[in-house]
Hints:
By secondary structure, the protein is of the alpha/beta class. The protein has helices at about 30-40, 55-60, 60-65, 145-150, 155, 160-165, 170-180, 205-215, and strands spanning about 1-5, 15-20, 20-25, 45-50, 70-75, 85-90, 90-100, 105-110, 115-120, 135-140, 190-195, 220, 225-230. The protein has one domain (about 1-230): 4-Layer Sandwich (Metallo-beta-lactamase, Chain A), CATH 3.60.15.10. Strand 6 and strand 7 form a beta hairpin.
Amino acid sequence: MKYKCFGTGSKGNLHRLSHNERYVYLDAGLAFPRFKESCGWQLDKVDFVALTHGHVDHGKCFEDIKKAGIPTISPPIDDWESTQTEFEIGDWKIKAWDVEHDVRNWAYLLYHKPTKHKTAYMTDFSYTKLVPATVDTLILEISYIDDIIESKQNELGDRYLRLVKYHNSLRRAKELLQKMMDSEGYKLKNLIICHLSDRNSDAERIKQELFELTGIMPVIADKGTEVELT
């Protein structure tokens, strides 16, 4: 299983899992020509695209993807009572669950049947009830570091409250990872951090603190990042 990042952060989010030239995409926040380029213009190689939520930096080309006939999964934006959160497409079993954001937002657990590899993707959230304890790979947003934004409250203004209410921080990420580590079946091998704020985070500090906690050296995702998942 391989991971590649084509974009992360406010300029657009597009992540790909691949195995034997078959592709799964997490979010669709780039222009459609860039999406097509990411799969070598071979849309028939895409098994499905999973959208977390409807903000443009995550769903910019999602409607184009649907029009192209590619299978998609997304939260029913206007139906908070929807009960379908489990899907099966090709070699994949997918479970979605709601996480806290300012619009309906899903995190995903993706199980690849041939390799038995489990991946969780969690972004743009401040709280999750479900802890994905038994995954091999976690792709996790850390938008900001708590003490950095605390020191910039006046400068950030309303942005400060939005970050705290709707995005994940280093402190919250460490709390989630500790819960995973304390759970039966914990087996995390790959930790990929995405959606860092340019001004409110520190990639080296995040890597160091998460390594001290988990013993896993995180990968900070950026455009072009590739990881061979174990």
